[in-house]
Amino acid sequence: MVKRIFAIIGIVSAVACSTNKKAIDQQLATTIRNDQRLQTVSAKAETLLHDGLNAGSGYGEIWIRDLNTFIELACKTGDVKKIREALLTFFKFQREDGNIVDGYIPKGTSQISYDFIYSPLAPDFAAHKNTVETDQESSLIQAINKYINVTHDTSLLNEVVAGRTVAQRMEDAMNFLLTKRYSEKYGLIWGGTTIDWGDVQPEHEWGVVLDSSSHPAIDIYDNAMFVIAMNNYVAMISDANKKKQWLQTRDQLSKNIRTYLWDASKQKFIPHVYLKGSPFPASFDENAIYYHGGTAIAIEAGLLSEKEILASYKQMQQNVKEAGAPSIGLTVHPVYPKGLFKNTWLVPYYYQNGGDWPWFGGRMVQQLIANGYYKEAYEALSPMLDMIIKNGGFSEWYDLKGAPNGSGQFRGSAGALWKAIAIMNEKM
Question: Domain of life of the organism in this record (predicted)?
């Protein structure tokens, strides 16, 4: 896999790309250029991101996993100084072991009873961390890289937070993953047992915090996110020795992903490699489940060949057909049966268990474009455009009938689709 850098409407973005330059069908290019839906959805996204960095109208928090997916658009349409400060605020809550919180909110405004984290460096805010996740550290590093690519504000790396620079704190965050969330046996990072990229484990009624009932597990999403973060980190620093060190770590992690998580016979990623047993009954074949989101992130990380990328896309479309879902934003197929999660509302085809999320579907479209699959990218993008236009905005997720659910005006979906449209327009 070869990496290259290319511009998307003034925004520089590192993406996985093949060495083969695929010709663009001119009839397809004309169709795409004349499709007013792209302009309509892009304009809606720009309007939404003009103000506010919280995840959506149903969320008061600024979440780093969400901000990471719309920060480029936010820099284009919003207040760059506020975005810079938002990134620094995450470091103000960084713990001594290097870990990064999920998000933060003005004190006294949260509607959820998290076990809040406080910092004298950010006295007006309360932070929280869903410890079943292992993507917060990687998401922050990726977001900083995107911010710098858009704004060219490299001074952020030298900004000092409690005696350590942002560059040093990014490395602290990565070292947290290698010391506190690393399996020596597999050479991969672990988290709680969740559905693909989700944040709900099956052993608890709420399910967002690791506890004595948790089953630590390795999955593709967390590890692919870490690979991308290491790529971004070495692109931002100048120290040759550190570059060499982290590239070696990236290469070994990538090799271990292919060894332990890629099922060559099924041409898919294994949902979980368990460190202390599975929370599911032995009769349940979890490896029958296909993870759409983690696969898209693995492509971004450069972990699949051209042939595997196309096969993955075809499998996603087959899953959509079998499920009767609106788009490849479908999280997983088949879904986890009812009753496997103590969280009683996580039933089949609801939320992360088979809901349709343009937040991740849009990222798969980005990778199809990056690898020259323009027809497939347009095919995949089209139903997402229709959903946004029909429902008048960006909802968090959609059910099998394409009806909006979850938070309204979800900025993650807006950012992912806007970027997909931007790079599509740049190619055409």
Answer: Bacteria
